[in-house]
Amino acid sequence: MMPLLLLLSSLGLLLSAALHFSTYLGVDPQDHWPHLWLMYFGLLIPLFADYHLRKQHKTPTNPDPNLKYLAPHTPLWMKLAIKILIVYVFIVALVCCFKFRSSPIRLPDGAYAIQGHTKNFPITEHEYHFYRALEVRGMSALLMLFFASPLPALTSACHERRIPPPA
Fold it and tell me: What is the side-by-side strand order in the sheet with 112-115?
């Protein structure tokens, strides 16, 4: 079970990272895959992994195991990578908060606009793609963080299974 959850979380992390960084190359993933929001269902994988690991390590003396208890065998590079990812996601969130206005739309006449509460505000095609990229970056950065969150504990759990118990 642990190797499968580790594989699924890793694949989710790689897919969300590919979506995220493709926007820097000028690709609009929402044009190629309009149902991009379905990736949110993938968040069930890390949530299930976290639940399963905590349930497995719960004891009467430790009713709510934390990450230090769950992931004693996590490689140092992974701990560092997750800390860097947390800082990166925070920066992306700040950029999205200050740059993002509202969802850009393509009007039936081919023009581009930002949806307002009462009317649409016209924007250029360049601004349309910029706001679409911000949407994907914000979503995929959060997805990367969620998919990366169980990786230390899952890696440690898989490592523990390979270590023979002390005699």
Answer: 104-106, 112-115, 120-123
| Dihedrals phi, psi of 136, to nearest 5 degrees | -65, -40
pLDDT tens per residue, range 62-88: 555 555 555 677 788 888 888 899 899
- What average pLDDT does the chain have? 78
- Provide the β-strand partners of residue 121: 114
Question: CA-CA distance, 149 to 83, in Å (whole number)?
Answer: 10
Q: Coil, strand, or helix at residue 30?
A: helix
Rounded to 5 degrees, φ, ψ at 114 are -105, 130
**126's tokens:** 């360049």
First-residue to last-residue Cα distance in the chain: 26
Whole-model pTM?
A: 0.73
130 has pLDDT over 60: yes
Q: Helix count (H) and strand count (E) of the chain?
A: 7, 3
* Residues 62, 67, 73: CA angle, nearest 5 degrees: 105
User: From CA 38, how far away is CA 20, in angstroms rounded?
Assistant: 15
Query: Would the pLDDT of 12 be above 90?
Result: no
Q: Which residues contact 107 (CB under 8 A, 6 or more apart)?
A: 113, 120
